[in-house]
Amino acid sequence: MNFDLPALRQQFPFFTAHPDWIYLDNAATLHKPQAVFDAMNQFYCAQNSNVHRSAHGLSQQATAAFEAARTIVAQFLNARSSHEIIWTSGTTAGFNQLVFGLMGPVLQSGDRVLISTMEHHANIVPWHIHALPFGVELDVVPLTADHRFDLSAFAELLKLKPKVVSISHVSNALGHIQPIADIARLAKAAGAIVVLDGAQGIVWEKVDVQALDLDFYLFSGHKLYGPTGIGVLYGKTEYLELLRPLLGGGEMIKTVSFSQSSWNDLPYRLEAGTPNMAGAIGLGAAILWLQQQDIAAMQHHKKALVQRFYEGCRQIPGLELLSGPTTNAGIVALNLKNEHPADLATLLDQQKIAVRAGTHCAMPLFQALNSKGSVRFSFACYNSFDEIDRTLTALATAVELLTE
Amino acid sequence: MIRPDIFTETAAALKNIYDTQLPELRQLKDWQSRYRILMTLGKALPVFDSDGHRDEFLVQGCESKAWLLHYQDPVTTQHFWAFDSDARIVKGLIILILAQVNGLTAEEFARASPELLLNELQLQQNISPSRSNGLLAVLTKIKNVI
What we know:
The complex is a heterodimer.
Chain A: H1 5-10, H2 13-17, E1 22-23, H3 34-47, H4 57-77, E2 85-88, H5 91-102, E3 112-116, H6 125-130, E4 137-141, H7 151-157, E5 164-168, H8 180-189, E6 193-197, E7 216-220, E8 231-235, H9 237-240, E9 253-256, E10 261-263, H10 277-292, H11 295-314, E11 319-321, E12 331-336, H12 341-349, E13 353-354, E14 356-358, H13 363-368, E15 374-378, H14 385-403
Parallel strand pairs in A: 1-13, 3-4, 3-5, 5-6, 6-7
Antiparallel strand pairs in A: 2-8, 7-8, 9-10, 11-12, 12-15, 14-15
Chain B: H1 5-27, H2 31-38, E1 66-72, E2 79-85, H3 88-101, H4 106-110, H5 116-120, H6 135-145
Helix pairs in contact in B: 1-3
Protein backbone atom coordinates (compact mmCIF):
# COMPACT_ATOMS: atom_id res chain seq x y z
CA MET A 1 0.00 0.00 0.00
CA ASN A 2 1.06 3.57 -0.59
CA PHE A 3 0.70 6.54 1.69
CA ASP A 4 -1.32 9.07 -0.27
CA LEU A 5 -1.68 12.02 2.07
CA PRO A 6 -4.04 14.20 -0.03
CA ALA A 7 -6.37 11.22 -0.54
CA LEU A 8 -6.24 10.36 3.15
CA ARG A 9 -6.89 13.94 4.21
CA GLN A 10 -9.86 14.19 1.91
CA GLN A 11 -11.62 11.57 3.99
CA PHE A 12 -11.72 13.96 6.98
CA PRO A 13 -14.54 16.50 6.54
CA PHE A 14 -13.21 18.70 9.35
CA PHE A 15 -10.39 19.99 7.19
CA THR A 16 -12.79 21.13 4.50
CA ALA A 17 -14.65 23.12 7.17
CA HIS A 18 -11.42 24.69 8.52
CA PRO A 19 -8.93 25.00 5.68
CA ASP A 20 -7.12 27.88 7.39
CA TRP A 21 -6.29 26.09 10.65
CA ILE A 22 -3.37 23.78 11.41
CA TYR A 23 -4.59 21.20 13.88
CA LEU A 24 -1.81 19.89 16.12
CA ASP A 25 -3.91 18.97 19.14
CA ASN A 26 -4.37 15.41 18.00
CA ALA A 27 -3.45 13.88 21.35
CA ALA A 28 -6.47 15.66 22.84
CA THR A 29 -8.85 14.36 20.19
CA LEU A 30 -8.43 13.17 16.64
CA HIS A 31 -10.58 14.11 13.69
CA LYS A 32 -12.72 11.38 12.25
CA PRO A 33 -12.97 10.01 8.73
CA GLN A 34 -16.27 10.15 6.84
CA ALA A 35 -16.67 6.38 7.29
CA VAL A 36 -17.28 6.93 11.01
CA PHE A 37 -19.99 9.53 10.40
CA ASP A 38 -21.60 7.30 7.78
CA ALA A 39 -21.81 4.36 10.18
CA MET A 40 -23.25 6.48 13.00
CA ASN A 41 -25.66 8.21 10.65
CA GLN A 42 -26.79 4.87 9.30
CA PHE A 43 -27.38 3.63 12.85
CA TYR A 44 -29.46 6.62 13.91
CA CYS A 45 -31.38 6.89 10.64
CA ALA A 46 -32.07 3.22 9.94
CA GLN A 47 -31.28 1.04 12.95
CA ASN A 48 -32.00 3.07 16.08
CA SER A 49 -33.64 0.86 18.72
CA ASN A 50 -32.54 -0.07 22.19
CA VAL A 51 -30.21 -3.03 22.25
CA HIS A 52 -30.67 -6.36 23.97
CA ARG A 53 -34.00 -5.97 25.77
CA SER A 54 -36.76 -4.98 23.39
CA ALA A 55 -39.03 -7.66 21.99
CA HIS A 56 -39.02 -6.58 18.38
CA GLY A 57 -36.93 -7.38 15.36
CA LEU A 58 -35.65 -3.81 15.05
CA SER A 59 -33.97 -4.14 18.41
CA GLN A 60 -32.38 -7.36 17.26
CA GLN A 61 -30.90 -5.57 14.24
CA ALA A 62 -29.53 -2.82 16.47
CA THR A 63 -28.12 -5.41 18.87
CA ALA A 64 -26.45 -7.23 15.99
CA ALA A 65 -24.75 -4.02 14.82
CA PHE A 66 -23.73 -3.11 18.37
CA GLU A 67 -22.29 -6.56 19.08
CA ALA A 68 -20.55 -6.65 15.70
CA ALA A 69 -18.64 -3.54 16.81
CA ARG A 70 -17.57 -5.37 19.97
CA THR A 71 -16.28 -8.23 17.83
CA ILE A 72 -14.31 -5.77 15.67
CA VAL A 73 -12.58 -4.41 18.79
CA ALA A 74 -11.94 -7.93 20.13
CA GLN A 75 -10.29 -8.97 16.87
CA PHE A 76 -8.35 -5.70 16.66
CA LEU A 77 -6.80 -6.36 20.10
CA ASN A 78 -6.62 -10.11 19.54
CA ALA A 79 -8.71 -10.75 22.66
CA ARG A 80 -9.73 -14.35 23.28
CA SER A 81 -13.42 -13.50 23.24
CA SER A 82 -15.64 -10.52 22.50
CA HIS A 83 -16.96 -10.64 26.08
CA GLU A 84 -13.49 -9.46 27.14
CA ILE A 85 -14.38 -6.08 25.58
CA ILE A 86 -16.27 -3.83 27.99
CA TRP A 87 -17.70 -0.60 26.58
CA THR A 88 -16.97 2.46 28.68
CA SER A 89 -17.45 6.15 28.04
CA GLY A 90 -13.67 6.54 27.71
CA THR A 91 -10.36 5.66 29.32
CA THR A 92 -11.09 7.72 32.45
CA ALA A 93 -14.39 5.94 33.06
CA GLY A 94 -12.67 2.63 32.36
CA PHE A 95 -10.05 3.31 35.01
CA ASN A 96 -12.70 4.25 37.56
CA GLN A 97 -14.53 0.94 36.94
CA LEU A 98 -11.27 -1.00 36.99
CA VAL A 99 -9.90 0.45 40.23
CA PHE A 100 -13.26 0.32 42.02
CA GLY A 101 -13.76 -3.23 40.77
CA LEU A 102 -10.37 -4.47 41.95
CA MET A 103 -10.88 -3.19 45.50
CA GLY A 104 -11.92 -6.07 47.67
CA PRO A 105 -11.71 -9.05 45.31
CA VAL A 106 -8.10 -8.33 44.34
CA LEU A 107 -6.76 -5.42 46.37
CA GLN A 108 -6.88 -5.17 50.13
CA SER A 109 -5.36 -2.96 52.79
CA GLY A 110 -1.57 -3.14 52.70
CA ASP A 111 -1.38 -4.10 49.01
CA ARG A 112 0.74 -2.01 46.68
CA VAL A 113 0.09 -0.62 43.23
CA LEU A 114 2.87 0.57 40.93
CA ILE A 115 2.36 3.42 38.45
CA SER A 116 4.85 5.76 36.74
CA THR A 117 5.69 9.46 36.93
CA MET A 118 4.29 9.94 33.43
CA GLU A 119 0.75 8.83 34.19
CA HIS A 120 -2.32 10.80 33.15
CA HIS A 121 -4.59 11.80 36.04
CA ALA A 122 -6.99 9.06 34.88
CA ASN A 123 -4.42 6.50 36.09
CA ILE A 124 -3.78 8.38 39.36
CA VAL A 125 -6.97 9.89 40.73
CA PRO A 126 -9.14 6.72 40.62
CA TRP A 127 -6.51 5.10 42.87
CA HIS A 128 -6.84 8.10 45.20
CA ILE A 129 -10.63 7.81 45.28
CA HIS A 130 -11.16 4.06 45.38
CA ALA A 131 -7.97 2.45 46.69
CA LEU A 132 -5.84 4.67 48.94
CA PRO A 133 -8.64 5.30 51.50
CA PHE A 134 -8.76 1.52 52.01
CA GLY A 135 -5.09 1.15 52.79
CA VAL A 136 -3.64 0.47 49.34
CA GLU A 137 -0.26 2.11 48.75
CA LEU A 138 0.89 3.70 45.51
CA ASP A 139 4.51 3.48 44.33
CA VAL A 140 5.82 5.51 41.42
CA VAL A 141 8.45 4.59 38.83
CA PRO A 142 10.75 7.61 38.38
CA LEU A 143 11.93 9.21 35.14
CA THR A 144 15.38 8.80 33.66
CA ALA A 145 17.43 11.95 32.99
CA ASP A 146 16.05 12.07 29.44
CA HIS A 147 12.43 11.82 30.69
CA ARG A 148 11.98 8.14 29.88
CA PHE A 149 10.55 5.25 31.84
CA ASP A 150 13.28 4.02 34.20
CA LEU A 151 13.26 0.26 33.64
CA SER A 152 15.95 -0.52 36.22
CA ALA A 153 14.13 1.49 38.90
CA PHE A 154 10.97 -0.34 37.83
CA ALA A 155 12.67 -3.70 38.34
CA GLU A 156 13.72 -2.55 41.83
CA LEU A 157 10.18 -1.38 42.72
CA LEU A 158 8.78 -4.73 41.61
CA LYS A 159 10.60 -6.20 44.61
CA LEU A 160 7.95 -4.48 46.76
CA LYS A 161 5.58 -7.05 45.23
CA PRO A 162 2.86 -4.77 43.82
CA LYS A 163 -0.43 -6.57 43.18
CA VAL A 164 -1.09 -4.30 40.19
CA VAL A 165 1.24 -2.52 37.76
CA SER A 166 -0.57 0.21 35.84
CA ILE A 167 1.45 2.11 33.24
CA SER A 168 0.77 4.26 30.19
CA HIS A 169 1.55 2.74 26.80
CA VAL A 170 2.55 6.19 25.52
CA SER A 171 3.06 9.28 27.69
CA ASN A 172 0.28 11.73 26.83
CA ALA A 173 2.38 14.73 27.82
CA LEU A 174 5.73 13.77 26.29
CA GLY A 175 4.87 11.28 23.55
CA HIS A 176 7.50 8.81 24.72
CA ILE A 177 6.65 5.19 23.95
CA GLN A 178 7.08 3.07 27.04
CA PRO A 179 8.87 -0.28 26.82
CA ILE A 180 5.57 -2.12 27.23
CA ALA A 181 6.88 -5.58 26.33
CA ASP A 182 9.56 -5.34 29.03
CA ILE A 183 7.14 -3.78 31.50
CA ALA A 184 4.60 -6.55 30.98
CA ARG A 185 7.19 -9.34 31.09
CA LEU A 186 8.88 -8.08 34.28
CA ALA A 187 5.60 -7.31 36.01
CA LYS A 188 4.21 -10.76 35.17
CA ALA A 189 7.37 -12.40 36.44
CA ALA A 190 6.87 -10.49 39.70
CA GLY A 191 3.32 -11.82 39.92
CA ALA A 192 1.52 -8.53 39.27
CA ILE A 193 -1.65 -7.85 37.32
CA VAL A 194 -0.64 -5.76 34.32
CA VAL A 195 -2.74 -2.76 33.25
CA LEU A 196 -1.79 -0.57 30.31
CA ASP A 197 -3.35 2.85 29.66
CA GLY A 198 -3.61 2.75 25.90
CA ALA A 199 -5.28 6.15 25.42
CA GLN A 200 -2.31 7.50 23.42
CA GLY A 201 -0.77 4.18 22.47
CA ILE A 202 -3.50 2.43 20.52
CA VAL A 203 -3.35 4.91 17.65
CA TRP A 204 0.40 4.47 17.36
CA GLU A 205 0.63 0.72 17.01
CA LYS A 206 -1.47 -2.41 16.99
CA VAL A 207 -1.61 -4.11 20.37
CA ASP A 208 -1.85 -7.88 20.72
CA VAL A 209 -3.13 -8.40 24.25
CA GLN A 210 -2.39 -12.12 24.14
CA ALA A 211 1.15 -11.81 22.81
CA LEU A 212 1.92 -9.19 25.49
CA ASP A 213 -0.03 -11.20 28.08
CA LEU A 214 -1.86 -8.07 29.24
CA ASP A 215 -4.51 -8.38 31.94
CA PHE A 216 -6.16 -5.03 31.19
CA TYR A 217 -5.84 -2.50 28.38
CA LEU A 218 -7.87 0.70 28.18
CA PHE A 219 -8.42 3.24 25.45
CA SER A 220 -10.81 5.91 24.17
CA GLY A 221 -12.63 5.95 20.85
CA HIS A 222 -12.05 9.62 20.14
CA LYS A 223 -8.28 9.17 20.18
CA LEU A 224 -8.58 6.37 17.60
CA TYR A 225 -10.45 8.30 14.86
CA GLY A 226 -13.72 7.30 16.55
CA PRO A 227 -16.45 9.29 18.27
CA THR A 228 -16.32 10.82 21.75
CA GLY A 229 -18.07 9.20 24.68
CA ILE A 230 -17.05 5.65 23.87
CA GLY A 231 -14.08 3.71 25.15
CA VAL A 232 -12.91 0.20 25.83
CA LEU A 233 -11.84 -1.67 28.92
CA TYR A 234 -10.27 -4.90 27.73
CA GLY A 235 -9.72 -7.48 30.47
CA LYS A 236 -8.87 -11.12 30.68
CA THR A 237 -12.01 -13.09 31.44
CA GLU A 238 -10.77 -14.36 34.79
CA TYR A 239 -10.03 -10.82 36.01
CA LEU A 240 -13.16 -9.23 34.57
CA GLU A 241 -15.15 -11.88 36.43
CA LEU A 242 -13.63 -10.61 39.66
CA LEU A 243 -14.43 -6.93 39.15
CA ARG A 244 -17.21 -5.47 41.26
CA PRO A 245 -19.49 -3.32 39.07
CA LEU A 246 -19.13 0.39 39.71
CA LEU A 247 -22.51 1.19 38.20
CA GLY A 248 -25.71 -0.73 38.73
CA GLY A 249 -28.95 -0.93 36.78
CA GLY A 250 -30.10 -1.79 33.27
CA GLU A 251 -28.53 -4.59 31.33
CA MET A 252 -26.04 -5.44 34.08
CA ILE A 253 -28.52 -7.33 36.29
CA LYS A 254 -29.81 -10.90 36.24
CA THR A 255 -32.39 -10.79 39.05
CA VAL A 256 -33.39 -8.02 41.42
CA SER A 257 -35.47 -8.12 44.58
CA PHE A 258 -35.70 -5.34 47.14
CA SER A 259 -33.16 -7.07 49.33
CA GLN A 260 -30.57 -8.16 46.75
CA SER A 261 -29.58 -8.42 43.11
CA SER A 262 -27.56 -10.87 41.10
CA TRP A 263 -25.55 -9.74 38.13
CA ASN A 264 -25.51 -10.63 34.50
CA ASP A 265 -22.66 -12.37 32.67
CA LEU A 266 -19.77 -10.61 30.99
CA PRO A 267 -19.62 -8.24 29.27
CA TYR A 268 -23.05 -6.91 30.31
CA ARG A 269 -22.31 -7.18 34.03
CA LEU A 270 -20.00 -4.16 33.69
CA GLU A 271 -22.21 -2.16 31.30
CA ALA A 272 -25.00 -0.59 33.33
CA GLY A 273 -27.65 1.51 31.61
CA THR A 274 -28.38 1.95 27.93
CA PRO A 275 -25.00 1.83 26.25
CA ASN A 276 -23.60 4.34 23.79
CA MET A 277 -24.79 2.33 20.82
CA ALA A 278 -23.94 4.80 18.08
CA GLY A 279 -20.57 5.44 19.72
CA ALA A 280 -19.69 1.75 19.75
CA ILE A 281 -20.75 1.40 16.12
CA GLY A 282 -18.74 4.51 15.22
CA LEU A 283 -15.67 3.11 16.96
CA GLY A 284 -16.12 -0.17 15.12
CA ALA A 285 -16.22 1.77 11.85
CA ALA A 286 -13.10 3.73 12.85
CA ILE A 287 -11.19 0.50 13.48
CA LEU A 288 -12.35 -1.01 10.18
CA TRP A 289 -11.26 2.20 8.47
CA LEU A 290 -7.88 2.10 10.20
CA GLN A 291 -7.35 -1.52 9.20
CA GLN A 292 -7.83 -0.52 5.58
CA GLN A 293 -4.97 1.94 5.90
CA ASP A 294 -1.28 1.14 5.81
CA ILE A 295 -0.60 1.48 9.54
CA ALA A 296 3.16 1.03 9.08
CA ALA A 297 3.19 3.83 6.51
CA MET A 298 1.17 6.05 8.88
CA GLN A 299 3.68 5.40 11.63
CA HIS A 300 6.56 6.14 9.28
CA HIS A 301 4.90 9.41 8.24
CA LYS A 302 4.36 10.48 11.86
CA LYS A 303 7.99 9.70 12.68
CA ALA A 304 9.05 11.89 9.77
CA LEU A 305 6.76 14.73 10.96
CA VAL A 306 8.26 14.61 14.45
CA GLN A 307 11.77 14.53 13.01
CA ARG A 308 11.13 17.54 10.78
CA PHE A 309 9.48 19.50 13.58
CA TYR A 310 12.27 18.62 15.98
CA GLU A 311 14.96 19.71 13.52
CA GLY A 312 13.12 22.99 12.95
CA CYS A 313 12.79 23.64 16.69
CA ARG A 314 16.56 23.30 17.06
CA GLN A 315 16.94 26.34 14.80
CA ILE A 316 14.78 28.51 17.05
CA PRO A 317 16.79 29.95 19.94
CA GLY A 318 15.48 29.60 23.48
CA LEU A 319 13.27 26.55 22.98
CA GLU A 320 13.56 23.83 25.58
CA LEU A 321 12.35 20.45 24.34
CA LEU A 322 10.96 18.13 26.97
CA SER A 323 10.30 15.28 24.52
CA GLY A 324 12.91 13.32 22.63
CA PRO A 325 12.59 12.76 18.87
CA THR A 326 13.10 8.98 19.00
CA THR A 327 10.76 6.32 20.42
CA ASN A 328 8.14 9.02 20.18
CA ALA A 329 4.53 8.44 19.13
CA GLY A 330 4.05 11.90 17.61
CA ILE A 331 3.99 14.33 20.52
CA VAL A 332 6.51 17.11 21.14
CA ALA A 333 6.35 19.06 24.38
CA LEU A 334 8.39 22.22 24.62
CA ASN A 335 8.80 25.53 26.38
CA LEU A 336 10.36 28.86 25.64
CA LYS A 337 12.95 29.62 28.29
CA ASN A 338 11.56 31.83 31.09
CA GLU A 339 8.18 32.21 29.39
CA HIS A 340 4.83 30.76 30.35
CA PRO A 341 3.52 28.04 28.01
CA ALA A 342 0.11 29.76 27.94
CA ASP A 343 1.69 32.83 26.29
CA LEU A 344 3.38 30.80 23.58
CA ALA A 345 0.17 28.87 22.91
CA THR A 346 -1.90 32.08 22.69
CA LEU A 347 0.46 33.53 20.11
CA LEU A 348 0.19 30.30 18.10
CA ASP A 349 -3.59 30.34 18.41
CA GLN A 350 -3.50 33.86 17.02
CA GLN A 351 -1.82 32.35 13.95
CA LYS A 352 -4.41 29.55 13.76
CA ILE A 353 -2.13 26.82 15.05
CA ALA A 354 -4.11 24.61 17.42
CA VAL A 355 -1.96 23.27 20.24
CA ARG A 356 -2.46 22.63 23.92
CA ALA A 357 -0.70 24.39 26.79
CA GLY A 358 -0.56 23.49 30.43
CA THR A 359 0.11 20.38 32.44
CA HIS A 360 -1.88 18.02 30.18
CA CYS A 361 -3.66 16.16 32.99
CA ALA A 362 -0.26 15.08 34.28
CA MET A 363 0.50 17.53 37.09
CA PRO A 364 2.79 15.12 38.99
CA LEU A 365 4.93 14.74 35.86
CA PHE A 366 5.47 18.50 35.66
CA GLN A 367 6.20 18.64 39.39
CA ALA A 368 8.90 16.01 38.76
CA LEU A 369 10.22 18.07 35.83
CA ASN A 370 10.03 21.22 37.97
CA SER A 371 8.12 22.92 35.19
CA LYS A 372 4.95 25.05 34.95
CA GLY A 373 3.80 22.95 32.05
CA SER A 374 4.49 22.87 28.36
CA VAL A 375 3.15 23.60 24.94
CA ARG A 376 2.23 20.30 23.36
CA PHE A 377 2.32 19.73 19.59
CA SER A 378 0.74 16.41 18.71
CA PHE A 379 0.76 15.07 15.20
CA ALA A 380 -1.53 12.72 13.33
CA CYS A 381 -1.26 10.78 10.09
CA TYR A 382 -3.22 13.49 8.26
CA ASN A 383 -0.76 16.29 9.05
CA SER A 384 1.56 17.38 6.25
CA PHE A 385 5.17 18.54 6.00
CA ASP A 386 3.85 21.85 4.76
CA GLU A 387 1.88 22.21 7.99
CA ILE A 388 5.03 21.47 9.99
CA ASP A 389 6.94 24.15 8.11
CA ARG A 390 4.17 26.72 8.55
CA THR A 391 3.99 25.84 12.25
CA LEU A 392 7.73 26.36 12.61
CA THR A 393 7.41 29.78 10.97
CA ALA A 394 4.56 30.68 13.33
CA LEU A 395 6.55 29.37 16.28
CA ALA A 396 9.53 31.52 15.29
CA THR A 397 7.22 34.57 15.08
CA ALA A 398 5.79 33.83 18.53
CA VAL A 399 9.25 33.33 20.03
CA GLU A 400 10.43 36.59 18.49
CA LEU A 401 7.47 38.48 20.00
CA LEU A 402 8.11 37.00 23.42
CA THR A 403 11.85 37.56 23.47
CA GLU A 404 12.33 40.93 21.80
CA MET B 1 -0.10 42.10 55.39
CA ILE B 2 -0.83 43.55 51.98
CA ARG B 3 0.87 46.90 51.76
CA PRO B 4 -1.91 49.47 51.28
CA ASP B 5 -0.03 51.56 48.71
CA ILE B 6 -0.18 48.71 46.19
CA PHE B 7 -3.72 49.85 45.36
CA THR B 8 -2.78 53.51 44.86
CA GLU B 9 0.26 52.56 42.79
CA THR B 10 -1.83 50.15 40.70
CA ALA B 11 -4.50 52.81 40.23
CA ALA B 12 -1.94 55.29 38.92
CA ALA B 13 -0.44 52.71 36.55
CA LEU B 14 -3.89 51.65 35.29
CA LYS B 15 -4.87 55.26 34.66
CA ASN B 16 -1.71 55.81 32.69
CA ILE B 17 -2.39 52.68 30.61
CA TYR B 18 -5.96 53.84 30.00
CA ASP B 19 -4.79 57.28 28.86
CA THR B 20 -1.69 56.29 26.88
CA GLN B 21 -1.52 52.66 25.77
CA LEU B 22 -5.21 52.10 25.15
CA PRO B 23 -5.53 54.79 22.44
CA GLU B 24 -2.34 53.42 20.93
CA LEU B 25 -3.76 49.87 20.89
CA ARG B 26 -6.87 51.17 19.12
CA GLN B 27 -4.72 52.58 16.31
CA LEU B 28 -2.75 49.43 15.60
CA LYS B 29 -3.81 47.31 12.67
CA ASP B 30 -1.64 44.18 12.90
CA TRP B 31 -1.94 41.59 15.65
CA GLN B 32 1.79 41.42 16.34
CA SER B 33 1.95 45.08 17.31
CA ARG B 34 -1.11 44.76 19.54
CA TYR B 35 0.30 41.73 21.33
CA ARG B 36 3.71 43.40 21.62
CA ILE B 37 2.08 46.21 23.64
CA LEU B 38 -0.24 43.88 25.52
CA MET B 39 2.68 41.83 26.77
CA THR B 40 4.50 44.84 28.15
CA LEU B 41 1.53 46.26 30.10
CA GLY B 42 2.33 44.16 33.15
CA LYS B 43 5.69 45.85 33.58
CA ALA B 44 4.04 49.12 34.55
CA LEU B 45 2.23 47.60 37.51
CA PRO B 46 3.76 47.45 41.00
CA VAL B 47 5.58 44.24 41.79
CA PHE B 48 3.83 41.84 44.15
CA ASP B 49 5.72 40.73 47.22
CA SER B 50 5.33 37.27 48.70
CA ASP B 51 2.25 38.41 50.67
CA GLY B 52 0.47 39.26 47.44
CA HIS B 53 1.36 35.87 46.02
CA ARG B 54 -0.37 34.02 48.84
CA ASP B 55 -2.56 31.12 47.71
CA GLU B 56 -5.66 32.76 49.17
CA PHE B 57 -5.47 35.39 46.39
CA LEU B 58 -5.13 32.82 43.59
CA VAL B 59 -7.98 32.75 41.13
CA GLN B 60 -9.08 29.14 40.59
CA GLY B 61 -9.63 27.93 37.08
CA CYS B 62 -6.56 29.25 35.28
CA GLU B 63 -3.75 27.19 33.78
CA SER B 64 -1.51 30.14 34.56
CA LYS B 65 -1.32 31.52 38.07
CA ALA B 66 -3.36 34.66 38.68
CA TRP B 67 -3.52 36.63 41.91
CA LEU B 68 -6.25 39.22 42.43
CA LEU B 69 -6.25 41.66 45.35
CA HIS B 70 -9.24 43.78 46.27
CA TYR B 71 -9.85 46.83 48.42
CA GLN B 72 -13.07 48.72 48.90
CA ASP B 73 -12.91 52.30 50.15
CA PRO B 74 -15.29 52.38 53.15
CA VAL B 75 -16.19 56.03 52.55
CA THR B 76 -16.63 56.26 48.77
CA THR B 77 -17.55 52.50 48.35
CA GLN B 78 -15.23 52.42 45.33
CA HIS B 79 -13.62 49.04 44.45
CA PHE B 80 -9.86 48.97 43.84
CA TRP B 81 -7.81 46.11 42.45
CA ALA B 82 -4.29 44.84 42.13
CA PHE B 83 -3.31 41.93 39.94
CA ASP B 84 -0.45 39.68 39.01
CA SER B 85 0.00 36.60 36.83
CA ASP B 86 2.91 34.45 35.75
CA ALA B 87 1.66 34.57 32.15
CA ARG B 88 2.09 37.84 30.30
CA ILE B 89 -0.86 37.75 27.92
CA VAL B 90 -3.46 36.96 30.55
CA LYS B 91 -1.92 39.65 32.71
CA GLY B 92 -2.16 42.17 29.89
CA LEU B 93 -5.77 41.26 29.16
CA ILE B 94 -6.78 41.57 32.81
CA ILE B 95 -4.99 44.90 33.04
CA LEU B 96 -7.10 46.17 30.13
CA ILE B 97 -10.20 45.05 32.03
CA LEU B 98 -9.06 46.60 35.30
CA ALA B 99 -8.06 49.84 33.58
CA GLN B 100 -11.76 50.28 32.77
CA VAL B 101 -13.28 49.26 36.10
CA ASN B 102 -10.75 50.22 38.76
CA GLY B 103 -12.29 52.62 41.26
CA LEU B 104 -15.90 52.02 40.18
CA THR B 105 -18.67 51.59 42.71
CA ALA B 106 -20.88 48.49 42.52
CA GLU B 107 -23.60 50.51 40.76
CA GLU B 108 -21.15 51.86 38.19
CA PHE B 109 -19.66 48.41 37.66
CA ALA B 110 -23.09 46.89 37.03
CA ARG B 111 -23.46 49.20 34.01
CA ALA B 112 -19.98 48.42 32.63
CA SER B 113 -19.07 45.77 30.04
CA PRO B 114 -15.29 45.85 30.22
CA GLU B 115 -14.83 42.62 28.22
CA LEU B 116 -16.19 44.29 25.08
CA LEU B 117 -12.93 46.17 24.73
CA LEU B 118 -10.99 42.94 24.16
CA ASN B 119 -13.30 42.09 21.32
CA GLU B 120 -12.92 45.56 19.86
CA LEU B 121 -9.13 45.27 20.00
CA GLN B 122 -9.35 41.76 18.49
CA LEU B 123 -7.31 40.40 21.34
CA GLN B 124 -9.69 37.73 22.47
CA GLN B 125 -12.43 36.82 20.07
CA ASN B 126 -14.29 34.60 22.48
CA ILE B 127 -14.05 34.53 26.24
CA SER B 128 -14.55 30.81 26.69
CA PRO B 129 -14.68 28.84 29.92
CA SER B 130 -11.53 27.00 28.81
CA ARG B 131 -8.95 26.63 31.52
CA SER B 132 -6.13 27.70 29.24
CA ASN B 133 -7.66 31.12 29.25
CA GLY B 134 -7.91 32.41 32.78
CA LEU B 135 -9.75 35.51 31.65
CA LEU B 136 -13.24 34.28 32.41
CA ALA B 137 -12.20 33.01 35.83
CA VAL B 138 -10.78 36.41 36.78
CA LEU B 139 -13.79 38.28 35.38
CA THR B 140 -16.12 36.02 37.35
CA LYS B 141 -14.10 36.59 40.50
CA ILE B 142 -14.27 40.36 40.06
CA LYS B 143 -18.04 40.16 39.60
CA ASN B 144 -18.42 37.89 42.61
CA VAL B 145 -16.36 40.13 44.87
CA ILE B 146 -18.35 43.21 43.89
